[in-house]
Design goal:
Chain lengths: 115, 111
């Protein structure tokens, strides 16, 4: 079974540019989550999709961040325009049930550096 | 709101040394507690978990006991190997879809 795939693995962009991160969940997983770890601090929840619907986007930092999951398969997280404080590692996870547990699987993350 | 505090790293050890990483939490109710590990170049992996007070989670020689009286979930391993070098994250969940993580502790084990 393929795991959660994220790409790119690394991205370096200039302040003010736009970046789009992609996450491919495990096939059949209706639940998809985005998290972020900024500057070696704690990993923070950003949002939760069930299929194509946003169930909880309470962790999204501001309106420069836009997450989509068209068709309920892969998801994208767009940052526009990027700011220096957006640098960090963005993790995606997916699960079949909407509960943290053994089936809650993370990707290896996208390291975003804004210069 | 919920919060998880874990000891700051980095931690550097010699092979076969004893490892302990402290983790305390603040939360309402009775959350489930987790330790996740991120090996170099890989994603976060669930290492172990405990769902109620006094439960002990264990895996790959690591153990942690859910201590409600001290709101702690310290991770221990009696004899570390070079392959245990990784970033370790303590986390909690209220048995729903969301995890609250600590800041992570980087562990390096030297041969």
């Amino acid at each position: 079974e393929a795991g959660v795939t994220q790409f790119p693995s690394h991205s370096v962009i200039e302040k003010g540019q736009t970046v789009t991160l992609r996450c491919d969940p495990i096939s059949g997983h209706d639940n998809l989550y985005w998290y972020r770890r900024v500057m070696g601090k704690e990993i923070k929840f950003l949002l939760h999709f069930v299929k194509e619907s946003k169930q909880d986007e309470s962790g999204m930092p501001n309106n420069r961040f836009l997450a989509e999951r068209t068709g309920g398969t892969y998801s994208t997280l767009k940052v526009q325009p990027a700011e220096l404080e957006d640098s960090g590692v963005y993790f995606c996870a997916s699960s079949q049930e909407g509960v943290v547990g053994n089936g809650y699987t993370f990707g290896s993350g996208t390291r975003l550096t804004v210069v | 709101g919920d919060s998880v505090t874990q000891m700051e790293g980095p931690v550097t050890l010699s092979e076969e040394a004893f490892l302990t990483i402290n983790c305390t939490y603040t939360a309402t109710g009775y959350p489930s507690l987790f330790w996740y590990v991120q090996y170099p170049g890989e994603g976060l992996q669930l290492l172990l978990k405990a769902t109620k007070a006094d439960d002990k989670g264990s895996n790959k020689g690591f153990e942690a006991t859910y201590r409600k009286e001290t709101t702690s979930f310290h991770l221990e391993k009696g004899s570390v190997q070079v392959s245990d070098s990784a970033v370790y994250f303590c986390a909690l969940s209220h048995n729903d879809y969301k995890l609250s993580f600590g800041a992570g502790t980087t562990v390096t084990v030297r041969a």
